[in-house]
Write a structure and sequence with these properties.
The protein has about 180 residues and is mainly alpha-helical. The chain has nine helices and no strands. It is globular, with a radius of gyration of 16 Å. The two termini are about 15 Å apart.
């Protein structure tokens, strides 16, 4: 049961409705977690801005989804595991790669380093070691890429927290968590 109001077209004010129209035009739908964000149009605009910036970066779509899956599983966010399993499939991730990502790694050696780094950032609240940064650089990631990985960690933590706090209804094909919540 959702613990925070889910704004929908029936109860949206004009600003919320305009935001929903923009989201729907890009995604073909308005996911429930964005309907929770819409309680604060300022927060929704901020998230959409961050998401838009993160979408423009140099990291490939598969790596972004690998990071999202790793963090969603690590943070026991079933909504986000479900959402990013569906989005990851659209980005080209196969079932075994989705499972590897949820376990905090990847079958792709370079992506595995990014996912490991993202998991460490989350686990240690940004307090990563110089050795971890060197590992990411040695895998071929630039400082720009590293900042993008950090941005994706922050963005995914935000959505994990919102989804868990609100207990928003999952509106993607439901995927069970591998770990206990």
């Amino acid at each position: 049961m959702t613990r925070i109001n889910v704004v929908n077209n029936d109860n949206a004010n004009q600003e919320q409705a305009d935001l929903f129209a923009a989201i729907s035009s890009q995604m073909g739908m308005v996911p429930n977690f964005l309907k929770v964000f819409a309680n604060s149009p300022a927060a929704l605009r901020g998230f959409l801005g961050l998401h838009g910036i993160a979408s423009e970066g140099s990291l490939d779509g598969k790596t972004k989804e690998r990071i999202a899956l790793a963090l969603a599983e690590k943070n026991a966010c079933q909504y986000c595991v479900s959402a990013h399993t569906a989005i990851g499939r659209k980005a080209g991730l196969e079932g075994s790669e989705i499972e590897a990502s949820r376990a905090g790694t990847s079958q792709d050696a370079k992506a595995a380093v990014a996912v490991k780094f993202a998991s460490s950032l989350s686990e240690h609240k940004g307090e990563v070691t110089t050795a971890e940064l060197l590992e990411v650089r040695n895998a071929g990631y630039s400082d720009s890429d590293i900042v993008e990985i950090i941005t994706h960690v922050g963005m995914n933590l935000l959505t994990n927290i919102l989804a868990k706090a609100s207990r928003v209804e999952i509106d993607f094909p439901k995927v069970e968590l591998n770990q206990a919540a």
